Amino acid sequence: GEIYQYDVYAKKGYEGQYDAVKLRTIQDWIIIPQLQGVEGVAEVSTWGGKLKQYEIAVNPNTLNSLGVTITEIFDALEQNNQNTGGAYIEKDQYAYFIRGVGMATGIKDLEKVVVKNRNGSPVLVRDVAEVREGISLRYGASTKDGKGEIVCGMALMLKGENSKAVTERVKERMVQINKSLPEGVVAEAFIDRSKLVDNAIGTVTKNLLEGALIVIFVLILFLGNLRAGLIVASVIPLSMLVAVILMNAFGVSGNLMSLGAIDFGIIVDGAVIIVEATMHHLQKLKRKKDLTQSEMDEEVYQSASKIRNSAAFGEIIILIVYLPILALVGTEGKMFRPMAMTVGFAVIGAFILSLTYVPMMSAMFLSKNTEHKSNFSDRMMAWLEGIYTPFLEKALHFKKIVLAISLGLFVLAIVIFQNMGGEFIPTIEEGDIAINATIMTGSSLSQMVKTTTEYEKILKTKFPEIKTIVSKIGSGEIPTDPMPIESGDMIIVLKDKSEWTGDYKNWEDLANAMKSAMEAIPGANIEVSQPIQMRFNELMTGSRSDIAIKIFGDDLETLGNKATELISKINKIEGVGDLKADKVTGLPQITVKYDYNKIALYGLNITDINQIIRSSFAGESAGKIYEESKRFDVVVRMNASNRSDITDVSNLFIPLPNGQQVPLSQVATVSYEQGPVQVSRENGKRRITVGLNVRGRDIKSVVEEIQQKLDKDFKLPAGYYVTYGGQFENLIEATKRLSIAVPIALGLIMVLLFFTFNSMKQAGLIFTAIPLSAIGGI
Questions:
Q1: Which among 15, 332, 54, 370 is positioned nearest to 186, based on CA atoms?
Q2: Chain segment 690-703, per-residue pLDDT in tens
């Protein structure tokens, strides 16, 4: 996962010393090697900056006049920029190793490479090209706070590692890295996932502590005995200790999902039964003198033995309740199984303790005086019984009415449940906002940099709640998140809520206000989300949105038209926001279509022509220059003035087998065309995705309304069809699996109840509490 993101910049007063090339070189050769050595870090990706290279900028007119081809330059550089070894020679007592040193050390060496001999005179690289330091073609960039381009890096964690531990190690290493950077250069984090982890763990710890204190208070209050309450309460930390040991053994990490579901009331259930039964048993003895320790041991044994089966079956039934969650697989299984496992581990610990530790502690620390004096707990229970008894008597007197009311409420609960919305997981407020901005297809990288910079200026000016904004445009060095150059993600790091000045209830209100402000600059599609939420959605179904509507078919133009039609039909549905369709067509291209007859006439082959086009415009590496431990590509391509227009493509010289050259236009048709932006496939079928985020409504009801709308008004050609993905897809999969696992678990509970009471009537009577509990739950 993406656990740590940082930017590299020159401090105030040093800006003139470090340009985008030098900062990128520092990132690549000082920062990345050290971060990659951190345990748990898989990769470090880079956005922005300019990658240094040595450029052989060829002049095509000079090439033609001297009868030299770009392929010959490429071959000459490859053959004249290398070292070799010649084994060794033994002389006297020494072995002398032979080493041929032919690596170029800089521009001057490259200029002197011989391309060919012409009329007895060597043609050097400097005769046909300018050798200089240049930069690689860029497919991505990064900007910050409306101040222009920066270099930013992202540390990716190895699968299965602990994000908190790895992030802490990265932070420690970054302190050392900053000490090793040149004077005036700083690497500073803007996204640190350990903060989110700490906040989540802090929230869980606070809730668990508060819950434990409440449980202890209630136990002492209702048991009416401080010692008994403390004995039961001591089961909580011991059960949690067992849970932590088993979590570590089974590789379950402590997080909001795994720890947040722990219920201390469930954990102490068995202990309460044992202790309460023991106290009741002791009170019935009515001995005038205190029990001896041996007598106390025997009485506790007798009372615990009588109630042991009920306590044990109760704990087992609780474990069975979580079996359906353990049956989940895929994304839903990875998310929710740790929760069920953690609760199960805690219950197992409590189960063992209730049968061993609790009876032992009861025998040791409960009062051995069996005389019972009335206390506050007794008076409170008597008061509650006084309220409850009349209601019970009336319920027993009007059995049919109570039964009818219960059934009526149960039916009402079912009706309400069927009309309830549904979500795969609730949205967690991460504390940061992610905005994806996409401008017109085919826009240049410089235009996208200009657009994001303007957006950053607007947001920083209008929203003091923002701490910093870092935009990542296009694709990084490691394409873990490939995007076209006309698309970018703006990561907006917010200040603490206590510092917000606007009237915003939550992040959604603030994000919507930001979106409205950005729409002042027309021509961009704006999609609002949160960093982890956006990446989570993308990993699940390839779409960054909450819901992905996929249209499958063969023709890209038809798919694009149908996606536009679909958006027009659902954009008025309540809760639908950030509607966006994949761009599939409209990419401006200069297309070279070969004439096979002319290629055959001139004796050429397409592979050679393709290589010349690729070398001339994209450039190809013909070797490397080493600067101490750093290495930079030597790239051959046309100079900038000869690769700026379609005429430069048409006039590109192609060498013939007889030594002459002809322009590319003689063997191909060169023209402007619009081509596909991307071709997405799923299960062997072309598709286009319409993504949308849900605002102020549940996902299930939104999808159901969309389905009703499209079934009625949306028509597709033969062979085309629609599917629904995103979080909704996971919700459906989880529901299907639970629809099988839950009945099995209920069946097991019924079997256990039967074995407990040896009566189907009593088991059935208790089992009715399960469906009737839906009345309160729903």
A1: 15
A2: 888 887 777 888 88
